[in-house]
Amino acid sequence: MSQLSYMTPGVVGFVDRRTRLLVIGILILVAGIMCLLMAGFMPIMLFLPKPAGMGTAHGPQPIDIVPGMLLYVALAALAIGLAVGMMRVRKWVRPVILCACTIWILVGIGATVLFCVMIPHVLKTMRNAAGPGMPVIPNGVAIAIMVGTGTFMVVLYLIVPVLLMLAVQSRDVQATLEFFDPHPRWTDGVPLTVLGLSMGCLLGAIGTLFSMPRGLFLLFGVALFGWPGRIALLVVFAILIVTAILVFRRKLLGWWLLVITSTLLPTSWIITLFRVDLGDVYDQMGMDTSQLKMMNVTSGSWVGTIAAQTAALTVVMLYVAWKARKHFVD
């Protein structure tokens, strides 16, 4: 039997982008491996000497590095999974990357704005960090460090995801994936807005795990920690997982759960931020707050920025949910 013309790699109608997918897959794989290495190196922080100016304050405890390790492991799992999908030319990678990069950019904007707000406090901390008889960091050097850090954040949080989105959103990439992967995949027929909302719920559920070691949960003006906080976090985790599944399946109940959780949780956090001094809460939890207090992290500008970012993300989430309402059925 002769091979059909439309089943040959030289099919006319689109440019074969498998090489681009392979290169991107390799780069993402390298990023995933680096995340795993970062997770492995984080325990070394427990053995580093304390910076000058910390006095008798204790260093990080084992429980304090768990959230960071979980974050790097989660990022590594996502990156390695996407890399394998890219190199094997699986069509599900395109919608997942587009949604993930959108969330990445939103988080990056918030992180960059918060960094800009914290620059004066960080500069002050750097000037006061030198111990007795030690030279003070020159203003020029401190400013150069801040500029370098800010530039790195813009590249990492904004430029990289934008370039990644541009690399995979073209028609040729979509046609290449569909041609070389004609089999049904789990993202088939799922609108990007619905997939993005489901991934947002999943990200929120994973975020609750990062708070699990200390059990910190902000509940309408009260900061829970320890086992009461962990129980509340487990309840929220379960709700968000169910919401993510129902939203992905485009169930109307999932849409309502999404709207309710996207309204109540941020409202609870914002109210608590303005009513509770988190520095005192961290002290009660046994955390090292010396550097946080030096940077004035609990100041009005910091709290106001966090609250504004939370409100902005809530508005974006609810707007996307409203736009995606037509895709949900009873």
Describe the structure.
A two-stranded antiparallel sheet has the order 1-2. It has 330 residues and is an all-alpha fold. Helix 1 (18-41) packs antiparallel against helix 2. Helices cover 69% and strands 2% of the residues. Mean pLDDT is 81; it is low at 1-9 and 53-57. The longest helix has 36 residues, at 93-128. The chain has eleven helices and two strands, in the order ααααααββααααα. A hairpin with a 2-residue loop joins strand 1 (217-219) and strand 2. Among the domains are: 101-170; 189-330. The chain has helices spanning 18-41, 62-87, 93-128, 139-168, 171-180, 192-210, 227-248, 252-275, 278-284, 290-294, 300-323, and strands spanning 217-219, 222-224.
Q: Can I get a quick summary?
A:
With 330 residues, this protein is mainly alpha-helical.
Assembly category: single chain
Q: Whole-number average pLDDT?
A: 81
* Helix/strand order: HHHHHHEEHHHHH
Give the strand content: under 5%
Biggest sheet architecture = 2 strands, antiparallel
DSSP strand count: 2
What gross morphology would you assign? globular
Relative helix content: 55-70%
- Category by helix and strand content: mainly alpha
Lateral arrangement of strands in the main beta sheet: 1-2
Number of H- or I-type helical stretches = 11
Radius of gyration: 23 Å
- Low-confidence stretches are 1-9, 53-57
Question: How far apart are the termini?
Answer: 48 Å
